[in-house]
Amino acid sequence: MKKLKKQLLIVSALVFGVGLIALLAWLLYLDRIVTAQFEGRRWTLPAQVYAEPMELYVGQSFGADTLEQELRRLGYTRVDTPQTPGTYRRRNNRIDVVTRNFDFWDEKQASQALSIVASKTTIESLQDAKGADVPIFRFDPLLIGSIFPIHGEDRVVVTPEQVPDLLPAALKVVEDRKFDTHHGVNVAAIIRAAWVNFRAGQIEQGGSTLTQQLVKSYFLDNRRTFARKIEEAFMAMLLEVHFEKQDLMNAYINEIYLGQDGQRAIHGFGLASQFYFGKPLAELQLHEIATLVAVVRGPSYYDPRRRPERVKTRRDLILKLMNEYQLVDDKAMKTALAKPLGIVGTGTNAGGYYPAFLDLVRRTLRRDYSAEDLTEAGLKIFSTLNPLVQSRAEAALAQELTRLDKSRKRKNAQLEGVVVVTAPQNGEVIAMVGGREAGFAGFNRALDAKRSIGSLVKPVIYLAAIESGQFNAASIVDDAPVEVKLANGQIWKPQNISKELYGPVPLVRALAQSLNLATVNLGLQVGLPKVTREFQALGLDREPPQLPSVLLGALDVSPLEVAQLYNAFANGGFSTPLRAVRAVVDAEGKPLKSFALEVTPVADPKAVYQVNRMLVQVMERGSGAGSRAYLPPDLVVAGKSGTSSDYRDSWFAGFSGSHLAVVWIGYDDNAPTGLTGSSGSLTVWSRLMASIGTTSWNAPLPEGLQEASIEFPTGLGAKPGCAEQVISVAVPMGVELPMKPECQNGVINTLGDWWRSFTGER
Amino acid sequence: MNIAIRSLILSAVATLSACTVPRPYEPPPAPAPAPAPGGTPAQTQPAPPPPPVEEPQPLPPPVIREPTLGAASRALVSQAQAQVASKNYAVAASSIERALRIEPDNPLLWIELGKVRQAEGNYQQAENMGRKAASMAVNAPRTQSSAWTLVAESLRARGKNAEAREAQERADVAQ
C-alpha cells in the first residue's frame, strides 16, 4: 500500500517534472520567437509609390482655385494662421502655405513658408517668408500606392517622433487603461470582460491588453481558441519582460490592422492616416485621431466609408472619454465633436489607388528588383503619374463607355476601354487607365491587350514613303483597286470603308480620310520591308511580318506600344523609352537607381514634320474632325483614328504640344462593337485633351522644308480664291507642284503665313 | 555678306535678350502679326517655267529668335552646373529634367542636358541631345551652332573624327 503510494508519488512527480520541463521548453520556444521576431523589427515594408510632385513657379498655369485644390489633394489643411507643415491660409488670390519637408531622390526639401499670389489662371508671384522671390518650388508628392505582397499587408511605418502624443494616450484610455503598469495581461479586465460578455450572451467587451492585441496581430492567426488565448497571454508577458513600454506602443501603432482596400490590408496608423485622411499621421487633428482609434475595435464593422454614422457615434464616445480622462479640455472636445468625419474619397477615386499604372511601375522594376525587395525592403519609388490628368482620363473614359453601352444591343457584356497619356518630349507616362473599373484584377489591358490597330499603322507607312524621298505630302497616289497574291495562293483584295474609289489623291488627303486602297498602293510602292522596318525603328519591340495586310493594320499591338510608336512622331523623330519611374531610393533615402531621360534619333525630323502636318489635317478635315466640337478652337492637335476589321476595336492616338494620348475601346471577348475610331475613342480623346489644359502642337518648320498651298481634294498647287478647300502642307524645299489651272497666276505662300501666324511659330 | 548677317543676328539677339521677359513654357500667343512681309520670297514668277534650281536662299533672312530660359529654368540650370562641378551627374541631370518639364521645347535645355551627359562620359546620349536641340533650334543660329558643337565634341570623343568634322562644319556655318 505504502509502496504503491510511493510509486504513485514518484510517477506524478515525474509527470509533473516532465510537464514542467515541457512547459519551460515551450516558454523558451515562445521566448525565442518573440524576441527574434520583435528585435529584428522586420515589418515587411512594401515599396511606396509617389506621384509626380507639383512644381510651382511664376508663370505656371495654375489659378488660385486649382492651386488650392492641389493642396487639398496633398492633404494640406486650411487654417487661420499657417505655422506647422501641411497647413495653408487663403485670402482671395493669395495663398500662404507652410510646406512639408520631404526627401526627394536628388535633394532634401526642408519645410518652409511660402506666399503665393495667383490670378485666375497663372501663378504671379512666389516668395519665401523673407519676401525673397523663389524661382521654383517642388511640393511633397502624393503617395499613390504601394507594392504590397500577395498576402496583401500594406503599411507605412512611423517613428515615435512622427506620432502625435494624443494617439497613444487615447489608445490607452480606450483599449488598455492599465497599459503603463501591467505585465502583459490584465486579469481584472479579463474577468470583467468575461462577466459582461456572459451577461450579454455575446462578446461585448474585450479584456485584451494592447500587448496581447499586438501579439495576436504579430504572431498568431485569427482563430479564437482557448489554447491560443493562453499562448497569447504567455507571449504578451514574455514581450513585457524583454521590451520597454514605449517600444511596445510604437510596435502596436505600426502593426495593427485598420482597414481593407480590395486585396490590400491597411496596417498601422501611418498608412491608415494616408488611407482615410490623405495626410501624414503627424498632422492629424483631434477628431481624426479619435476616428482612427474608433476603427481599431473592428475595421470592417467600423468602416468610416461604409458606416460613417456608426463610426461617428463611436468617435464621439471616444472624444468624451478622452475628455473624461483629461487628455483634452472641454473646448477642444466640443470643437472636435462638431466636426464631420472628414474622410477623403474612397480608395478607387480621389486619394487614389491606380492599379494599371502601379502594375506598369511593378513591371518596370521587376527587371532590377526581386519581388521581396519590392514588397519588403521599404523602397521609395518616384513615379511619373500626374493625378490630375489621371482623374480626367478616368472620367472621360467612364462617361463615354456608359453612354456607348446604353446604345449597344449587347446587354450581357460591357464595353471596355484603355487610356494612356504621355509627355511626348520626355516619354513619361503621366496617366494610365486599364479599364472601366479602376480596381481590376490581374489583366492590364493597357499593357496586355494586344489588339488589331487598324489605320493607326498609316502614319508609319506615310513616314516610310516620305523618308524614301519619292513622295511628299502633295504627291499623288492612286486610290484604285488592288489585288495581292499571298504566299498561300489566296488573293487579298482590300476595300475602302465606304466601299468607294477616290482615284488619284494627294498623300495628305489619303491619310486624312484614311483611304485604304491609296494607302495599300503607297505601301506596295515603297516596299513592305521599308514599312515593317519603320515600325521597329520607331520603337516597336518586334518587326511586323512582311504581309500586305499589315498595311491596313492587321497588327496586334497593346495601347502602351501604340503610345511608344506615336511618341516618336510627337517627339519630332526622336524615340525615348516610355517611363513610369523616375527614381528609386532605399529605406534610408539613398538613391538606388534613376531612370534618366534618353533620346535616340530614329527618323528624319523633316519627314516626321511633314507627316505630323498631315496628321493635323486629319483633325481639321479628316477622321479626327469630330474633336473640334470639344477642343478650344485655336488648339492645334495631330492624330489618327483606327478601326479594326468588323469594328472590333475603336482606336484613337494623337498629340498636342504637351500631351500624347492613346484611347482604345472594345469588348474583352473581341466581339464587334459597331464603333469606328472616330465614333468611339475620338470622343474620349477629345474630352480628355480639352480638360487638361494642353498646349498646341507648334513645332517650327525645319530648315529645308517650305510651306505649300494645295487643293485638298486634288493636291494641285492653289490659293484661296481660285480653289476650294485650300490647305497648307510642308514639302521639301525646291519641290514644284503642278498648279491648278485657275490658279496659274502666282503661287502661293499666303497660307503658309496663315499657318505660321496660327501656331505662333517662329 | 557673312559679316552683315552676323551683325544682324547679333543685334537681333541683343535686342531680344534685352527686352525678353523670361517666359516659362506657355501656349502659343494668340495669332501674332504675320512674319515680316519679306517672308514670301521672290516666288511671284508664273508657275509653268520651273524656277532655277538651287536658287540661293531667300534674301531677307528669316526672323531670328534665339531662345531664352525662363526664371525657373535658369535657377535649375545653374543648380545643375554646380552639381556637375561636384561630379553629381545623376542629380544634375535630374535638375535639367525638371526644367525640361516646364519648357520641353527649349533647345537650350537639351544642350544643357547633353553637356551633363558629356561631362559624365556618356557621349552617345550627349550627341543625341545635341541632335535633338539642333532639330528644335530653327532660326536660332547661335543655339544651332552650340547644338552642333556639342554633337561634334561628342563624336570626336568617340573617335568618329570624320563625322565630327562634318558636325563642326554645321556649327561653323550656323554661326
Summarize the entry for a quick read.
Chain A is an alpha+beta fold and 762 residues long. In chain A, 38% of the residues lie in helices and 18% in strands. Chain B has helices at residues 2-19, 71-85, 89-102, 107-120, 123-136, 141-157, 161-174.
For the termini of chain A, the CA-CA separation is 118 Å
Q: Give me the secondary-structure category of chain B.
A: mainly alpha
Could you state the CATH homologous superfamily of the largest domain in chain A? DD-peptidase/beta-lactamase superfamily
How is the quaternary structure best described? Answer: heterodimer
Q: How helix-rich are the residues of chain B, as a percent range?
A: 55-70%
Tell me which protein chains meet in the greatest interface and how many residues each side has: A-B, 62 and 55 residues
Major β-sheet of chain B, in short?
A: none
What is the CA-based Rg of chain B, rounded?
Answer: 19 Å
CATH architecture of the domain at 71-174 in chain B: Alpha Horseshoe
Q: Give the number of helices of chain B.
A: 7
CATH architecture label of the largest domain in chain A = 3-Layer(aba) Sandwich
Q: What would the average pLDDT of chain A be, to the nearest integer?
A: 88
The percent range for helix content of chain A is: 25-40%
| Topology of chain B as a string of helices (H) and strands (E) | HHHHHHH
Whole-number count of domains of chain A: 5
